[in-house]
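REVIEWER CHECKLIST
Item 1: Sequence provided? yes
Item 2: Single chain? yes
Item 3: Sequence as submitted:
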Amino acid sequence: MKFNKGKCRVLHLGRNNLMHQYRLRVDLLENSSVERDLGVLVDDKLTMSQQCALVAKNSNGILGCIKKSVASRSREVFLPLRSALVRPDLEFCIQFWAPQLKKDEELLERVQRRAMRMMRGLEDLSSEERLMELGLFSLKKRRLRGDLINTYKYLKGGCQEDEDRLFSVVPSNGHEPKRRKFQLNMRQNFFTLRVMEHRNRLPREVVESPSLEIFKTRLDKVLCSLL
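Item 4: Structure as written out by the authors:
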């Protein structure tokens, strides 16, 4: 297999990285601070801020196109357009690049708030009231919902298990998994850590739901009561 040197870069990760130089045969490869992989920007800090900025820019561009090309502002017309054209961009591969900083979370939420302001009849409502009126969750709450659903599927055997299990169960409480401990602060943003605190706060009737569909229904009721 032949590799194109012009398309190869070295992305150094980690505070104690020795920053070695690498070659492709005789050619020295250039270092890079950020690279795109499957549509996701990954930088050498793993903060995902650049990815959030890119997604917000693209989504705002899509909203601008909808505003210029669609005359109707009714929710019956606008909500399907938002779900089909805007939300997929905001949530593509979100499990990997979920925003870690509040400024990045707010950047994405502003996109959704802009979309809701464009609908007729919601002008006098606050952002929270608009979400309730439309039966929607904030993007942050949707990410949490997705994490909790994936955790339920994993613990119930719906997902293929690796040899090294993601979670271990507390012996004194069979329904409550405990999270593994890691040394790096960056690990706090990993799926196995960020989801456990929220999952262990769920009522027992939600955690012990007999099926995925029942779990989703009960989970949505809990999430609706959260600010």
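Item 5: Key structural point noted by reviewer: The CA atoms of residues 149 and 216 lie 7 Å apart.
Item 6: Recommendation: ____
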